[in-house]
Amino acid sequence: MTLNPTTIPKDFLGLSADELNKRIIEVKAKLGKRLLILGHHYMSDDVIAHANERGDSFALAKIAAQTDAEFIVFCGVHFMAETADIVTTTAQKVFIPDPGAGCFLADCARIRDVEDAWQEIKSMTSEIIVPITYVNSGADMKAFCGDNGGLVCTSSNAARALKWAFERGEKVFFFPDQHLGRNTAFAMGIPLNEIILWDPDEPLGGNSLETIKQARVILWDGFCIVHQEFNVDYIEKLRQDDPQINIIVHPECDFDVAQVADYMGSTAYIIRMIAEAPSGSHWAVATERNLVNRLKKAYPDKRIEILQFFEPYCKSMAQINLTNLAYQLDQIDHGNLINQVIVEEQYAVSARIALNRMLELTQ
Ligand code: SF4
User: Fold this and answer.
1) Whether residue 224 has its Cβ less than 6 Å from ligand 1
2) For the segment 93-119, what is each residue's pLDDT rounded down to a tens digit?
3) Cα of 279 from ligand 1 centre, angstroms
4) 359: Cβ–Cβ under 8 A, 6 or more apart, which residues?
5) CB of 266 sitting under 6 A from ligand 1
6) Are 339 and 93 in contact (CB under 8 A)?
7) pLDDT tens digits, 200-219
8) Fold: same for 10-101+316-344 and 106-224
9) Matching CATH number, 106-224, of 3.30.300.10, 3.30.110.30, 3.40.50.2300, 3.40.50.10800
10) Looking at the whole model, is its pTM more than 0.70?
């Protein structure tokens, strides 16, 4: 759930980038360890420059769970700030500089539809079904998993989450990102005829009773609008032009794209692969442009490009900018706790169970 953004006063909106940077630095220095700014890799350069820690959603959730900071300012999208609020104590406060920064993918699944589908699927089989929600989902979805013996996953640990689930049940109900679910399950050796899609607008989710009974993974019909921009035709064209190119893609990409790619993995995996690649190597990367452009700058000895002729970017991530970050810090400094993200306790308790099961996967 996202909230309306706070109105920023006109005099603040007129400040130059230099002045905004100066104010951010001043508040950071004043609050010291009481303040922690977390920045997702898809943030713009000017925002990420102020992050105390940067990472993908998994890394940032882990950092949030471990910090003692009193004020945590999350430069990312709303579900990430919600996750941070769930894993921190009640004495800690989590803020997002624009609470209207949602996530297209997270909004693909509404809890009422997921609950209806769950009841329908359960009525058709006696097998144990384990729900898994991608971290890109609302707190209510995470709570649903906590209440029903399931867990949260990120793109870094989706395979481990599926393994965990299959140690406890025969079927997995995976939402909201069909591509992460399908790409991960297939890579684990589950054939496509045992991975089905659930369309909430169709009777039986658009399946026959027989296919539901034989399915091992039931995927919600959701997707990330940014990662849909990458396609096989462009990969083929790039390979014709440059036979040395390495294609690396995020698992939110289509199955066809993932199948023809050389490598597939989370944001952290993409960063590590390129960092460790030999000097002079060529890379085409299928993920958000801010990350790809930063990789280009960080490794000028390698040829790095985005896997598309234009630069797909996440409009929601772009809602966090230097102005609203500076205003957020200014208001915290003045004791005005605007844009605080508070997950209702009715969801937080159960969602924490599902998140902790995920955090324990890595131990
Ligand atoms: S890139 Fe996709 S999944 Fe990530 S925040 Fe944007 S819409 Fe959501």
Assistant:
1) yes
2) 999 999 999 999 999 999 999 999 999
3) 30
4) 61, 62, 65, 87
5) no
6) no
7) 999 999 999 999 999 999 99
8) yes
9) 3.40.50.10800
10) yes
